[in-house]
TrEMBL record:
<keyword id="KW-0238">DNA-binding</keyword>
<dbReference type="InterPro" id="IPR039420">
    <property type="entry name" value="WalR-like"/>
</dbReference>
<keyword id="KW-0805">Transcription regulation</keyword>
<dbReference type="InterPro" id="IPR011006">
    <property type="entry name" value="CheY-like_superfamily"/>
</dbReference>
<dbReference type="Pfam" id="PF00072">
    <property type="entry name" value="Response_reg"/>
</dbReference>
<keyword id="KW-0804">Transcription</keyword>
<keyword id="KW-0902">Two-component regulatory system</keyword>
<feature type="domain" description="Response regulatory">
    <location>
        <begin position="3"/>
        <end position="119"/>
    </location>
</feature>
<feature type="modified residue" description="4-aspartylphosphate">
    <location>
        <position position="52"/>
    </location>
</feature>
<dbReference type="InterPro" id="IPR001789">
    <property type="entry name" value="Sig_transdc_resp-reg_receiver"/>
</dbReference>
<protein>
    <submittedName>
        <fullName>Response regulator</fullName>
    </submittedName>
</protein>
<keyword id="KW-0597">Phosphoprotein</keyword>
């Protein structure tokens, strides 16, 4: 079980991801505003962060870059989950420090597999 913060401004998508990951055994909170999410992540220090790109306040890639500069959070795994596909978008996120990138729409099983994989890889990296 991991503590996850999902940053998503679309309430329906947020509820879907929350249900899928809760069913997979994780604790997940959804935050719909980028700046509030950044502050919450910095305070709560979750096991995993899932970020959308387009958000009110701070954009997802900006949150990602800022988190990578914070001591105590720079190793926190971050999965981008966004509707923006394309090589440039993926490359930008990976260069900013994302551990993985998944494009919406997605299959729930694929999301669970990616979350579990990112968490597992992060565990090995910290040991």
């Amino acid at each position: 079980m991991a503590r996850i913060i999902y940053v998503e401004d679309d309430e329906l998508v947020g509820a879907l991801v929350q249900q899928v990951l809760t069913d997979a055994g994780h604790l997940i909170g959804v935050i719909g505003h980028g700046t509030l999410a950044y502050e919450t992540i910095a305070f709560k220090k979750p096991d995993l962060v899932i970020l959308d790109r387009g958000l009110p306040g701070m954009q997802g890639v900006d949150i990602l870059s800022a988190l990578r500069r914070l001591p105590g959070l720079y190793l926190t795994p971050i999965l981008m989950l966004t509707a923006k596909g394309g090589e440039d978008a993926v490359e930008e996120a990976m260069e900013a420090g994302a551990n993985d990138y998944l494009v919406k729409p997605f299959e729930p099983e694929e999301l669970v597999r990616r979350v579990d994989e990112v968490l597992k890889n992060n565990l090995f990296r910290r040991e």
